[in-house]
Each structure stands twice: as C-alpha cells, then as structure tokens.
C-alpha cells in the first residue's frame, strides 16, 4: 500500500507549480453536485463559457465536487463526463482539484431531478455525499470503496487533475441549517474512523497527484488543541488544506500555525465579503506565504451563495449587499470590477503548465 508522501516529495511537487489561484466551482444552472454532473443537466457549453471568464482574470485552478450517487447511476458515463470537464478546464489553462465526499448541507441526497432553490436561501439544495444514513451504516459505507478507487485509477496519471480532495468538512453538523435532521456532534466520532479508510482507498488507485482533506474550524496552534479527526486528516494528507473565512490577520495566524508541518498549503475555501474575507485583503496574504487560494463560488446561480449563511434563519427577500460569495453575474459581468483587477494583478493571469509531450491531454 502506498504511503503518505514525504515532505520532500510534496514540496518538490509544489515547487513545479505556479501559485494556485481559483475557485470552488458549480455552474450557474446547477443547484448541487448531482445537477452539475447528471446526464440530463450536464452543460459543457455553459461550463466552457464560465471557465473562460475565470481564466480571463487569472484563475488557473478550480475545485469541483463529485457525488457517490453519480458513480452508482452509471460509472462509465460519469467518468466520461469528468473527462469532458477536465478537457474544457485544461483548454482554458485551468487545473482541477476533485472532491469525493462532503458532509455539508442536505443530509439525504437523491439521484434524478433535483428540487428548485428555496428563494433567498444560501445553498438550499447542496447535497451531502454520502448521506447520513450511509455514514451510520458501516457496510454501506464500505461499498463506496469502488467509487473512490475507480475514479482515481481512471485519472491517476492525468496532469489535468492537480489534487485529490477526499472529504470536505467531514464533521460539519449543519447545526444552523438542518439541525437535528443531521448527526450533530456525533458525526465527528463517526468520520474519525472512516477518514483513514478513504485515504487507503484513494492510495489503492495509485495516483500520481497528492491527496488531501481540509480542516475547517478549530484551534490549530498545536497537536494538543486539534480535534481527533483533524489530526487524522493532517496525518494522512500529502499536502495541507484548510478553510478560513476570517479577516486577513486571522487567516495569516492559521497559515503560521500550519507551517510547522513543512508541507505545501492550499486554502480551499475563503472569501465571504460579509465576514471580512475579501480578495483585496486575503489574497495578498496567501500569495506572500505561497498558499494556494480557492474562493467560494464563481458565477451567481442556483446555489444562491450570494446570500449569507444566516439566510437559513431569515431568507432574504431582496438581493444582499454586499454579495456573500461569487465573482460574476450570470451574464459574465464582474460583481465588482476592482476585485477582478486585484485577482488579475496578483496572478499575472497565471496558468497551469500544459502537459509535457507524451502525457495525457
């Protein structure tokens, strides 16, 4: 069984890359991962249009979420759609970070036609993967082995995939949205036992790309202050990833805390204007420390993440000011022109290097 990359291997890999700058991406016509990828709603032309906008301001990478139910529907055709997506992104000089599991938002996902967005509510239809019923059933969770290993094996040597992100916010209890319908604090204990299995499944696919799972909420100043599942995530990751929606001084403290691991770092979620996490404030901090930077959102659409998190308690009847997330209006106009100018300036419109001769395109 493959082991965690050495620090040298991880840093050598990172040294060969440009500074990774991009977004968490879902097309404007998709309420969640299922609607993004399912055959009836997969939209290559729209994705091509939106990723062109991302590239035009200097973004060279994106983070996208898969779903285990898509593999169950039709694995072969699902892989073909992922391949199509990677080709579109690569055409625009964009590399892709792929996320397998996500413990945030709707606890009971279902395949097929997805519901319409709830007016004025942030991410009202985003789906957990797997659902909480699977998390509580060890035998059912074990069946997801083929999904993780199968996807990774298919793209294991594909340079269009930059990083594999195995589990997004695994312990998130969704207390302010789904409350008692989710697993609450008990979720952390369950996922602490499952995370190592997912890393083992991923390594069985023999990826040439690094693996990670990001920590997202807590005190990371020392091993003693970190939660059990956070220590597992960090210990199993080839490169360190984390989330922070705080002000520039807050995120810089987090970066400094995590520098003790002496591994490449990627902030896989930031930028929420209402909390003080802005492009102008945070992006220069991440560049100074050469930490990869993935904001949440690109184009305002059915996820409705231009609305703040508190919209779950008080749905918005009018457009929020400022927008919480997102960079572009649906017609391609920047929400704030000064923001895209900052991104373009800091990135020098940087691009992921094209594959070397002989590599898969």
Describe this structure in words.
There is one protein chain. By secondary structure, the protein is of the alpha/beta class. Helices cover 36% and strands 12% of the residues. The chain is built from twelve helices and eight strands. The chain has an eight-stranded parallel sheet. Helix 4 (68-91) links the parallel strand 2 (61-65) and strand 3 (95-102). Helix 3 (44-56) crosses helix 4 and helix 8 (186-204) runs parallel beside helix 9. 49% of the residues are buried. Residues 353-361 have low confidence and may be disordered.
Set down the secondary structure blueprint.
Elements lengths: L6 H9 L5 E4 L8 H5 L6 H13 L4 E5 L2 H24 L3 E8 L29 H4 L2 H5 L2 H10 L6 E8 L17 H19 L6 E2 L15 H9 L3 E4 L4 H11 L6 E6 L8 H10 L3 E5 L40 H11 L14
Parallel strand pairs: 1-2, 1-8, 2-3, 3-4, 4-5, 6-7, 7-8
Number of helices: 12
Spatial arrangement of strands, main beta sheet: 5-4-3-2-1-8-7-6
Number of strands: 8
End-to-end CA span: 28 Å
Q: Average pLDDT value?
A: 96
The residue ranges in which pLDDT falls below 50 over 5 or more consecutive positions are: 353-361
SSE sequence, one letter per element: HEHHEHEHHHEHEHEHEHEH
Strand content: 5-15%
The outline comes out as globular
**Alpha-beta classification:** alpha/beta
What fraction, in percent, of the residue positions are helical?
25-40%
Using only CA atoms, what is the Rg? 19 Å
Query: Largest sheet, described in full?
Result: 8 strands, parallel
């Amino acid at each position: 069984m493959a082991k965690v990359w050495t620090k040298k291997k991880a840093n050598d890999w990172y040294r060969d890359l440009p500074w990774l700058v991009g977004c968490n991406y879902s097309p404007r016509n998709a309420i969640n991962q299922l609607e993004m990828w399912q055959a009836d709603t997969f939209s290559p032309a729209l994705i091509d249009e939106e990723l062109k906008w991302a590239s035009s301001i200097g973004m060279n990478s994106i983070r996208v979420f898969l779903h285990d139910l898509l593999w169950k529907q039709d694995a072969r055709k699902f892989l073909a759609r992922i391949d199509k997506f990677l080709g579109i992104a690569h055409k625009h000089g964009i590399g892709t970070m792929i996320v397998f599991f996500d413990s945030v938002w709707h606890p009971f996902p279902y395949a097929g036609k997805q519901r319409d967005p709830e007016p004025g509510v942030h991410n009202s239809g985003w789906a957990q993967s797997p659902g909480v019923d699977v998390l509580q059933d060890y035998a059912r969770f074990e069946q997801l082995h083929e999904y993780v290993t199968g996807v990774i094996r298919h793209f294991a040597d594909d340079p269009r995939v930059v990083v594999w992100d195995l589990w997004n916010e695994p312990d998130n209890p969704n207390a302010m949205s789904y409350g008692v319908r989710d697993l609450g604090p008990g979720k952390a204990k369950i996922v602490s036992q499952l995370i190592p299995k997912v890393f083992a499944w991923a390594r069985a696919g023999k990826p040439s790309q690094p693996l990670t799972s990001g920590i997202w909420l807590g005190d990371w100043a020392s091993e003693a202050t970190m939660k059990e599942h956070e220590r597992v995530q960090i210990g199993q990751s080839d490169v360190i990833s984390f989330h922070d929606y705080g002000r520039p001084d807050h995120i810089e403290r987090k970066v400094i805390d995590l520098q003790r691991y002496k591994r490449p770092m990627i902030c896989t979620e930031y930028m929420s204007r209402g909390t003080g996490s802005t492009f102008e404030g945070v992006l220069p901090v991440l560049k100074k420390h050469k930490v990869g930077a993935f904001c949440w959102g690109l184009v305002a659409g059915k996820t409705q993440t231009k609305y703040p998190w508190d919209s779950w308690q008080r749905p918005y009847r009018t457009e929020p000011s400022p927008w919480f997330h997102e960079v572009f209006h649906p017609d391609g106009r920047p929400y704030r022109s000064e923001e895209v100018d900052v991104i373009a300036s800091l990135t020098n419109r940087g691009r992921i290097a094209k594959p070397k001769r002989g590599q898969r395109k």
